Structures are given as structure tokens and as C-alpha cells.
């Protein structure tokens, strides 16, 4: 017959006993726990003053320029200074203006020389056509 072995009984009952000793409380999931929050009191570093960034621009701004180009010799007013109508702002070097005037006078003299040459050519051709030295179509 079969003999009763107590070791087999212990091996069969031991897992059941150990399963009953297990802790059945649910584990805390860190994703479901509320986050830790630190509460502090905010104290203002200033006493109600405010700072704003921006650019200050004049309400009326005039674009100024010279009628002629040239080198500036002297600036008579400073930036931001009040000026009146007709008040000179800067002085230009008169050498550039003098050179431009001379160039224009020389251009006028050259044009007058071309007019004298053309009228002399016309008078010469008129006499040549009258004497028959040149055909009228060349005149």
C-alpha cells in the first residue's frame, strides 16, 4: 500500500499558505499621485514703477537736402536744435560750385563757337554754289 509521506503534503500546502500571506493592498502608481507643489509669496522688487521699451520720434520730420552737391565745410546747427525758416544749416565748399560754373561757361562758349563755324560754313557754301564750284545738292 501507499505510505503516507508528510513531505508531499508540505510541498502541496506550502504554496497555498504563502499565497494567503501576500499583501493585497494596491501599489501606488507615481502617475496617479498628485504633484508636489511649493507655495511662495511673490514680493515686488519695485514700488509700482513701470518700464517700457520704444523709440521716440518727432511728430513732424522734415527731409532736408541741398539743391547742389558739394563738400560740407561747416555745420551751423546741431541735431535736435530748433531752427527758423531761412536759417542756414550748413556751409558748402564754394570750389565745387565755382568749377561747375566754369564748366557751364565753357560749354556755352563751345556752343557759340559751333554756331559761328556753322554760319561761316553756310556763307562759304553759298558763294561756292553761286560760282558753280559746288552743286546745289551739296549745299
TrEMBL record:
- The protein depicted here goes by the name Biotin/lipoyl-binding protein
Question: Keyword Signal on this protein?
Answer: yes
What family is reported? Belongs to the membrane fusion protein (MFP) (TC 8.A.1) family.
Every copy of the Multidrug resistance protein MdtA-like barrel-sandwich hybrid domain together lies at: 63-99
Q: Name one GO molecular function term.
A: efflux transmembrane transporter activity
Where does the signal sequence lie? 1-19
Question: Native species of this protein?
Answer: Enterobacter agglomerans (Erwinia herbicola)
Lineage, broadest ranks = Bacteria, Pseudomonadati, Pseudomonadota, Gammaproteobacteria, Enterobacterales
Please provide the record's keywords in A-Z order. Signal
Amino acid at each position: 500500500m501507499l505510505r503516507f509521506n508528510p513531505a508531499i503534503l508540505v510541498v502541496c500546502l506550502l504554496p497555498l499558505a504563502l499565497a494567503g500571506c501576500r499583501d493585497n493592498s494596491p501599489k501606488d502608481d507615481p502617475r496617479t499621485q498628485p504633484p508636489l507643489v511649493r507655495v511662495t509669496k511673490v514680493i515686488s522688487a519695485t514700488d509700482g514703477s513701470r518700464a517700457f521699451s520704444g523709440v521716440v520720434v518727432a511728430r513732424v520730420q522734415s527731409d532736408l537736402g541741398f539743391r547742389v552737391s558739394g563738400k560740407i565745410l561747416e555745420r551751423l546747427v546741431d541735431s535736435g536744435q530748433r531752427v527758423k525758416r531761412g536759417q542756414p544749416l550748413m556751409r558748402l565748399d564754394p570750389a565745387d560750385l565755382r568749377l561747375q560754373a566754369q564748366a557751364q561757361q565753357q560749354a556755352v562758349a563751345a556752343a557759340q563757337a559751333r554756331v559761328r563755324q556753322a554760319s561761316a560754313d553756310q556763307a562759304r557754301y553759298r558763294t561756292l554754289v553761286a560760282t558753280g564750284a559746288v552743286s546745289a545738292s551739296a549745299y
